[in-house]
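Internal tracking record. Fields below are filled automatically when a chain is submitted to the structure queue. Please do not edit lines marked as system-generated. If the sequence contains nonstandard residues, flag them in the REMARKS field before resubmitting.
Queue: standard
Priority: normal
Entity type: single polypeptide chain
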Amino acid sequence: MLLPFHIAIALSSVIFTGYMYFSPSKNKLKVSYYLVGATVATGTWLIIANPVHMVQSCMTGLAFIGASLFGIVLARYKLAKNEE
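SYSTEM-GENERATED OUTPUT FOLLOWS
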């Protein structure tokens, strides 16, 4: 039950981060942070519940975090540039 929820949050996070890049705002940054946090929290719970696939899960999680943070940094840079 938690796995589909985790996948939905992760996909929402990636899609929202892409949307935020084209239309950045401070509120959207906060939502993006919460989505990434929720994804990490549910992923951690999944790893605790089923530690068999921990290495694969951690590698996928690191790729997700890297892509999300890259998008967030780009959006923050764009927002800071627009506020000047």
